[in-house]
Specification:
Layout: E1 5-7, E2 13-15, E3 19-20, H1 26-38, E4 43-45, H2 53-61, E5 71-76, H3 83-97, E6 104-107, H4 117-129, E7 136-139, H5 143-153, E8 159-163, H6 171-179, E9 183-187, H7 200-209, H8 213-224, E10 227-228, H9 235-243, H10 251-258
Parallel strand pairs: 3-4, 4-5, 5-6, 6-7, 7-8, 8-9, 9-10
Antiparallel strand pairs: 1-2
């Protein structure tokens, strides 16, 4: 069964669950991503800084699946925010994949101290006009950053990919994006390296639905309108994660998981108001 989809203000449609490719590199990465495509994933998330755009492109071109149904994503690193550098980096990303164009391209971090993210956004708009990109968005942008983009260019991102997991639910950011018809993707959706899956309340909800804790957390994302991007190298885990789209949690269950949120819930204290990544 096809996954439910969400639609942005410009008409970009994304599936309810995507596939993260961080640290999937080389031949083994190609095989894992190709398997994920065969298992039903259509939204593939990569980045210039992951150094695996070629791996993703190779998996896509050798998967045997219709290219038009796949949404290949990459991201612009902070060191290339200057307009002309950003354009060249987009070109390089496309060349690395071996594809004619990328379906979605995001500014990886706003890097507000450097303050060049508007230049980078203008470059992404131009790259889209040139046909290098089909849709554009951002990662880790706060409302103030999004508002500055709109004020400077009149163009809102289609996507804002941010850190969301039960310890950091981001209710206000989700609400802001939804109000502006910006699709919210969730990175580290099951809390990379933390103990969220062993929380008793998640275990109880999983038992009630005959599901795994990971499926419950992914279903929590879907129920809140976020698009989680779990990574899984093994076919069985890929299938398990994707099946979470069919798991319907009650409002009370969603609220119970959201209540696990903490003031210091970020995984690595990466506050986009001050954090810089190059």
């Amino acid at each position: 069964m096809p996954l439910p989809t969400l639609t942005s203000h410009s008409g970009l449609e994304l599936p309810a669950i995507g596939f993260g490719t961080y640290k999937l590199n080389g031949a083994s990465g190609v095989e894992a991503i190709r398997t994920a495509i065969g298992n039903g994933y259509t939204l593939l998330d990569s980045a210039f800084n992951y150094e695996n755009e070629g791996t993703v492109g190779r998996a896509v071109t050798t998967s045997g699946h219709d290219r038009s149904r796949l949404i290949v994503t990459s991201k612009l690193p902070g060191r290339h925010h200057r307009h002309d550098e950003a354009l060249r980096t987009v070109e390089e990303s496309v060349y690395r994949t071996g594809l004619d164009a990328l379906d979605l391209y995001l500014i990886h971090w706003p890097n507000p101290k450097v303050g060049l993210y508007v230049e980078a956004w203008q470059a992404l708009i131009k790259a889209r006009e040139r046909g290098l990109l089909r849709a554009i968005g951002v990662c880790n942008f706060l409302p103030e950053h999004l508002e500055r983009l709109q004020a400077a260019t009149g163009v809102l991102p289609d996507v804002n990919q941010i850190e969301i997991h039960p310890y950091f639910p981001q209710a206000e950011a989700l609400a802001y994006d939804a109000e502006h018809q910006i699709l919210t993707e969730a990175w580290s959706p099951i809390g990379r390296g933390n103990d969220v899956l062993s929380q008793p309340v998640i275990g109880e909800i999983a038992a009630a639905h005959d599901a795994t804790p990971a499926q419950v957390v992914l279903a929590w994302h879907v129920g809140r309108g976020a698009i989680p991007l779990p990574k899984a190298a093994t076919p069985s885990r890929q299938v398990e994660n994707l099946a979470a789209a069919d798991l319907k949690l009650s409002s009370a269950e969603i609220d119970t998981i959201t209540a696990l949120g903490r003031a210091d819930g970020r995984l690595a204290d990466q506050d986009p108001a001050v954090y810089e990544e190059f």
